[in-house]
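User: What would this chain look like folded?
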Amino acid sequence: MKQDLAYIHPEAKIAKTVVIDPFVTIHKNVEIGEGTWIGSNVTIMEGARIGKNCKIFPGAVISAIPQDLKFEGEDSTTEIGDNTIIREFVTVNKGTKAKYKTVIGSNCLLMAYVHVAHDCDIGNNCILANVATLAGHIEVDDYAIIGGLSAVHQFVNIGSHVMISGGSLVRKDVPPYTKAARDPLSFVGINSVGMRRKGLSSEKINEIQDIYRVLYLKSFNVSKALAYIEAEMAATPERDEILSFIAKSSRGIMKGYKQHEKKTS
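Assistant: Here's the prediction, encoded as structure tokens.
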């Protein structure tokens, strides 16, 4: 473990193969796994649990207390999975008594100046581009991509394989496998490119396309669309994932672009 010119609390648990560059500060109650690199001027505060083979670039602050006036000093954590890359000046806050933890999965990329607030839960293989900002209590499922300069409202859920355009204001839940863009944020298609890259077949992609045609292009409201999809389309893991996500949505899902046009015309 290289640690020249760094401050490391004696109670921190750091694997022997961790590389720590100069001017790093690591507080107590921190755990860092094998093969991780911590760049210069990184601050890792109490409650951080960092996995194996991660890379944390200069200036990042991990597991700072929440920017939430309701936080009362409760014992909480920030948990980061293996092989995740955290670029310059990213800030990740630990949890509050709502969940007691903020979670970032494995194989994620958080680009420069990303902010992840308290009690967020980010899945595996996610990408948050530069200056993307997540408020508290947000859930992001596997393989989601959030474009740069986007701001996500608290308690929003973002489904798996989603692609959100840069500069977006995300106020509603974004269902799995979709692309989201425009203002207000709207359904603009399915993320077929992302799905092909992950190995989904053309048949599977067409199935998902048909589901969203019913939801966004037919003249159904959401409840009627869900009932039609469940009754008329064969049960598959992807169909059921979409139905479950929408049924559980407390904030409501983003609308289609044509639905917004009808509302404003």
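The longest helix spans residues 202-216. If you want, I can go into more detail on any region.
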